[in-house]
Please model this.
Amino acid sequence: MPLPSTGWHKSSHSSDFEDACVEVRVIADNDALLIRDSKDRSRGPMTVSAASWRTFLASRSNS
Model:
């Protein structure tokens, strides 16, 4: 699932009325992504490799 290399993108499974909202931001030059909880941004983002993110997405689509 390719994402634009700028800005934060809210998960399509999140809504404004749920407790769990995830946002993702691509780090273009590092082949990595930042992931954060949009409801608690004080915790800061977590960094994951693009390969790990693709594996995660593939595992979710098989559930």
Observations:
- Strands lie at 9-10, 22-27, 32-37, 46-49.
- Residues 50-61 form the longest helix (12 residues).
